[in-house]
């Protein structure tokens, strides 16, 4: 390799290593240490009577409120659901929520990426999940 080639390779390596060191690593949730559900707004996919229902929940101080949702089967409205979370295991919280037309008890099991798998009582194998909505300010 001649001197010019080495210089080009060195420059490329410098660019690669500089960009790697500048890149901010994704934040990870330490599920072994959390004692409350992380505050924020979550995009939630529920399965009600076999029908997928999309909803948006805001969580503050372990209290969840449904801000908006698709209509659930039977024309039930999820908007206005309110529930309180209780820590039951490492990264796992139980929530009982209700409004005038719907009630459920759920387990939210958080993952390091901040999302949560949701299981209901009784569990019928529904595919349910909560994903934090990142504020793009």
Q: What does this molecule look like?
A:
The protein contains one helix and eight strands; from the N terminus they run H-E-E-E-E-E-E-E-E. The protein has 137 residues and is mainly β. The protein has a domain of 93 residues: Quinohemoprotein amine dehydrogenase alpha subunit, domain 2 (Lipocalin), CATH 2.40.128.120. The chain starts with a helix and ends in a 5-residue tail after the last strand. About 16% of the residues have low confidence.
Key terms:
Lipocalin; eight-stranded antiparallel beta barrel; 1 helix; mainly beta; 137 residues; 43% strand
Q: What layout of secondary structure does this protein have?
A:
Elements (H helix, E strand, L loop, with lengths): L2 H20 L17 E9 L2 E10 L2 E7 L12 E8 L2 E7 L4 E8 L5 E5 L7 E5 L5
Antiparallel strand pairs: 1-2, 1-8, 2-3, 3-4, 4-5, 5-6, 6-7, 7-8
């Amino acid at each position: 390799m001649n001197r010019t080639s080495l210089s080009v390779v060195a420059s490329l390596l410098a660019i690669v290593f500089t960009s790697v060191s500048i890149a901010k690593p994704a934040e990870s949730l330490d599920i072994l240490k959390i004692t409350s559900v992380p505050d924020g707004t979550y995009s939630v996919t529920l399965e009600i009577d076999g029908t997928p229902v999309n909803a948006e929940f805001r969580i503050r101080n372990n209290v969840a409120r449904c801000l908006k949702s698709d209509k659930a089967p039977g024309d039930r409205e999820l908007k206005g659901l309110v529930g309180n979370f209780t820590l039951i295991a490492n990264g796992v919280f139980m929530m009982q929520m209700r409004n005038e037309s719907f009630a459920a008890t759920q387990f939210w099991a958080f993952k390091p990426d901040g999302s949560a798998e949701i299981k209901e009582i009784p569990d019928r194998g529904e595919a349910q999940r909560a994903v934090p909505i990142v504020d793009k300010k």
